[in-house]
Amino acid sequence: MTRDEQLERWLAGDLDGKKEAAHNDAGECCPDFACCNEGGAANAFDRQRFVDADDRTREGMLVGFLGAALEAHYGPGSVTTSADAHEEAANDEGEKWKR
Ligand SMILES: [Zn+2]
Questions:
Q1: Nearest-angstrom CA–CA distance, 46 and 67
Q2: Ligand 1 centroid distance, CA of 26 (Å)
Q3: Ligand 1 ion: residues within 5 Å (CB)
Q4: What is the chain's pLDDT, residue by residue, as a tens digit (99 residues)?
Q5: DSSP 3-state assignment of 65?
Q6: H or E stretch including 4?
Protein backbone atom coordinates (compact mmCIF):
# COMPACT_ATOMS: atom_id res chain seq x y z
CA MET A 1 0.00 0.00 0.00
CA THR A 2 1.17 3.53 -0.60
CA ARG A 3 2.02 5.91 2.24
CA ASP A 4 -1.23 7.81 1.64
CA GLU A 5 -3.30 4.61 1.80
CA GLN A 6 -1.48 3.63 4.96
CA LEU A 7 -2.21 7.02 6.56
CA GLU A 8 -5.87 6.76 5.65
CA ARG A 9 -6.23 3.26 7.09
CA TRP A 10 -4.16 4.15 10.16
CA LEU A 11 -6.42 7.14 10.76
CA ALA A 12 -9.39 4.76 10.77
CA GLY A 13 -7.60 2.51 13.31
CA ASP A 14 -7.57 -0.29 10.76
CA LEU A 15 -3.87 -1.18 11.07
CA ASP A 16 -3.27 -1.46 14.84
CA GLY A 17 -1.53 -4.70 15.73
CA LYS A 18 -1.35 -5.88 12.13
CA LYS A 19 2.48 -6.00 12.11
CA GLU A 20 4.11 -6.21 8.67
CA ALA A 21 0.69 -6.26 6.96
CA ALA A 22 0.29 -2.64 8.12
CA HIS A 23 3.54 -1.44 6.58
CA ASN A 24 3.59 0.67 3.44
CA ASP A 25 5.47 0.03 0.19
CA ALA A 26 8.62 1.52 1.73
CA GLY A 27 8.37 -0.96 4.63
CA GLU A 28 7.56 1.78 7.12
CA CYS A 29 5.55 1.34 10.31
CA CYS A 30 2.45 3.42 11.01
CA PRO A 31 3.32 6.85 12.49
CA ASP A 32 2.56 5.74 16.06
CA PHE A 33 4.07 2.24 15.56
CA ALA A 34 0.78 0.72 16.77
CA CYS A 35 1.13 -1.87 14.01
CA CYS A 36 4.06 -3.46 15.85
CA ASN A 37 3.38 -2.43 19.47
CA GLU A 38 0.51 -3.33 21.74
CA GLY A 39 0.64 -0.09 23.69
CA GLY A 40 1.37 3.48 22.76
CA ALA A 41 -1.24 3.84 20.04
CA ALA A 42 -2.08 7.47 19.29
CA ASN A 43 -5.62 8.58 20.00
CA ALA A 44 -8.01 9.68 17.25
CA PHE A 45 -7.30 13.36 17.89
CA ASP A 46 -3.52 12.98 17.49
CA ARG A 47 -3.96 10.80 14.41
CA GLN A 48 -6.05 13.46 12.71
CA ARG A 49 -3.58 16.13 13.79
CA PHE A 50 -0.72 14.13 12.25
CA VAL A 51 -2.56 13.63 8.96
CA ASP A 52 -3.31 17.37 8.75
CA ALA A 53 0.21 18.48 9.78
CA ASP A 54 3.10 19.62 7.58
CA ASP A 55 6.32 17.57 7.37
CA ARG A 56 8.12 19.51 10.08
CA THR A 57 5.28 19.04 12.57
CA ARG A 58 4.98 15.39 11.57
CA GLU A 59 8.66 14.82 12.37
CA GLY A 60 8.20 16.19 15.87
CA MET A 61 5.09 14.09 16.38
CA LEU A 62 6.91 10.95 15.17
CA VAL A 63 9.52 11.43 17.90
CA GLY A 64 6.72 11.73 20.44
CA PHE A 65 4.95 8.64 19.10
CA LEU A 66 8.21 6.69 19.17
CA GLY A 67 8.82 7.72 22.78
CA ALA A 68 5.30 6.63 23.75
CA ALA A 69 5.73 3.30 21.95
CA LEU A 70 9.06 2.67 23.69
CA GLU A 71 7.63 3.57 27.10
CA ALA A 72 4.69 1.24 26.46
CA HIS A 73 7.19 -1.51 25.74
CA TYR A 74 9.91 -0.85 28.31
CA GLY A 75 7.92 0.89 31.05
CA PRO A 76 7.30 4.47 32.19
CA GLY A 77 10.41 6.61 32.61
CA SER A 78 12.49 4.29 30.44
CA VAL A 79 12.83 6.82 27.65
CA THR A 80 15.01 9.90 27.92
CA THR A 81 14.57 12.50 25.21
CA SER A 82 17.45 14.74 24.24
CA ALA A 83 15.60 17.63 25.92
CA ASP A 84 15.48 15.63 29.20
CA ALA A 85 19.16 14.76 28.91
CA HIS A 86 20.07 18.38 28.33
CA GLU A 87 18.12 19.44 31.40
CA GLU A 88 19.71 16.73 33.53
CA ALA A 89 23.18 17.76 32.37
CA ALA A 90 22.36 21.36 33.23
CA ASN A 91 21.16 20.30 36.69
CA ASP A 92 24.33 18.26 37.28
CA GLU A 93 26.34 21.30 36.32
CA GLY A 94 24.33 23.39 38.81
CA GLU A 95 24.96 20.83 41.55
CA LYS A 96 28.71 21.03 40.97
CA TRP A 97 28.72 24.77 41.51
CA LYS A 98 26.89 24.41 44.83
CA ARG A 99 29.56 22.11 46.24
ZN1 LIG B 1 5.12 -1.77 12.13
A1: 14
A2: 11
A3: 29, 35-36
A4: 999 999 999 999 999 999 999 999 999 999 999 999 877 789 999 999 999 999 999 999 999 999 988 888 888 888 776 666 666 666 676 666 655
A5: helix
A6: helix 3-11
